[in-house]
Amino acid sequence: MLFSHIAILTGAGISAESGIPVFRSEDGLWEQHKVEDVATYEGFMRDKTLVHNFYNKMRRELKERKPNAGHIAITHLQEEMAKRGGSVTIITQNIDNLHEQAQSHDVIHMHGELNSVLCEHCGKRFPYFEDTSVESVCPHCKQKALRPDIVWFGEIPYHLDEIEQALFKCDLFIAVGTSGVVYPAAGFVGLCRKMHKPCLEFNLEPSAVNSSFTRGYYGKAGTTLPQFVEYLLQKDSLPDKL
Ligand code: NAD
């Protein structure tokens, strides 16, 4: 195979066709809320109930969401690469579980997960599928100190060591459905280019860091990704366009 180890960074755009709204709508709101109210620690301190309810709604809605052809194409690529002695690591900024629902493995959630909570008192993170509130009790330390296990703006993403290893190891870097404005994820393409790795962007339109990519495929990821995966697996080369 032309490539042995592929790292795929996914963002909100890969889940858009599954009915989960993306983050940066043109008015700068996330599901009708200001980002600073629902995606910062300061916002949580100002109004914990509002923030709990915001993620409760998304967690409930996630139960109805299903992976789309883009998630499934990545799983197919992962399975085929494994048969050929290679690997695909998925680094996702998404807090949904659609890669897992599509039976992908090696999924690194750098911004946390909707189906997880973090105890501010004892620091434990654990799976959680129900609504949370200021009254929710941590089963480990028995304190009322649970918060959504989401990496908010100004907080340090999870698994950065593991991500760095995947970026160093890969011989192809792919970014799907990410706007290229949220760091450090937006900087991964620059790091890979410094190491002279080919970097591909899949998006509806060129992202903020588009000039760093070697090639871009524009259109819905649910259409372009399956076409790309078939081409790569059959021809063992990169398509000029899709
Ligand atoms: P973003 O919302 O900032 O950008 C989404 C990008 O996807 C845009 O560049 C858009 O052009 C592109 N896009 C939209 N529909 C697409 C499609 N069908 N096919 C291909 N591309 C498409 O997303 P981001 O860069 O991931 O940053 C937002 C942050 O918000 C993330 O860190 C994440 O934590 C959070 N978030 C997560 C979810 C989720 O879990 N599904 C949803 C919204 C926001």
Automatic annotation (TrEMBL):
GO terms for cellular component: cytoplasm. Residues 1-235 form the Deacetylase sirtuin-type domain. Its main location: cytoplasm. It catalyses: N(6)-acetyl-L-lysyl-[protein] + NAD(+) + H2O = 2''-O-acetyl-ADP-D-ribose + nicotinamide + L-lysyl-[protein]. It is an enzyme of class 2 (transferase). Binds 1 zinc ion per subunit. Its EC number is 2.3.1.286. One of its GO terms (molecular function) is protein-succinyllysine desuccinylase activity. Zn(2+) binds at residues 119, 122, 138, 141. Keywords: Cytoplasm, Metal-binding, NAD, Transferase, Zinc. Coiled coil: none annotated. Its cofactor is Zn(2+). The active site is at 111 (proton acceptor). NAD(+) binds at residues 93-96, 177-179, 203-205, 221. It is found in: Cytoplasm. NAD-dependent protein deacetylase which modulates the activities of several proteins which are inactive in their acetylated form. Belongs to the sirtuin family. Class III subfamily. This is NAD-dependent protein deacylase. It comes from Candidatus Anaerobiospirillum pullistercoris. The gene is cobB.
